[in-house]
Amino acid sequence: MTKKDLQLIRLIDGNLRPNYTGLARKLGVSHTAIVKRVGKLLNMDLVRFSPLINVEKFNFRLVFILMEVTSDEYIDKLITRFRGCPRIISMFKVLGEYNLAVLVYAEDESVLNAILGTCMLRTAEGIRRSVVIPITSVLIGKYLSVRIPTKKLAKTPCGLVCSECRKYLRNECVGCPSTTYYRGFFATI
Q1: For residue range 47-66, what is the model confidence (pLDDT) as tens digits?
Q2: Which residues constitute the domain of residue 141?
């Protein structure tokens, strides 16, 4: 993957479109009918076209984090604080012993250790307990929606500053992909 490839993925994020002519042929309708239908689906927020990244090819580390959050108020606070976190692929409200589940990626083991202990959800206020489940291999669905930040901020979306982090200063973490301090894989963009 080259710098140009990463730029292309960034530019097409949210703007991918299907081959309307091919779909029209397959469905036996006009090109215009397909354009209108797809436009309607997009406007109704029922579908979104975006590039998915093969997490195995990037050799990303994936983990599920299950958390018991003390109240819905704290869940709302966590959603607000971490909504822009580029490392969070998905967040789910779940039933059972734990009430929040998050799918997270990291570039390697040292970054994973750094973010799990320093700046990730499980260290936030309102978390009663958590369990981290490392994903050893993706069996179905190896293409995931990993956000590639387009803006470089001084602070992370959750409000931390990488240049003040001990793990970042000791080169145990590449920093947040959303910041100017980031020195990981997506830094070439």
Answers
A1: 888 888 899 998 999 999 99
A2: 61-149
Strand intervals (E) in the chain: 53-54, 61-69, 88-93, 100-106, 127-135, 143-144
C-alpha–C-alpha distance, residues 29 and 150, integer Å:
38
The amino acid present at 151, given as its one-letter code, is K
- At residue 184's C-alpha, the angle toward residues 178 and 189, to 5°, is 65
CA dist., res. 111 & res. 104, Å (int): 12
> What is the number of domains present in the chain?
2
Q: Do residues 134 and 71 share a domain? A: yes
The pair of structure tokens assigned to 29 is 């309708």
Read off the pTM.
0.85
What is the C-alpha separation between 4 and 53, in angstroms, rounded?
15
72 and 137 inside one domain: yes
Mark whether 37 and 111 lie in a shared domain: no
For 89-147, the pLDDT digits (tens) are 999 999 999 999 999 999 989 899 888 888 888 888 999 999 999 999 999 999 999 98
Q: Which helix (H) or strand (E) holds 103?
A: strand 100-106
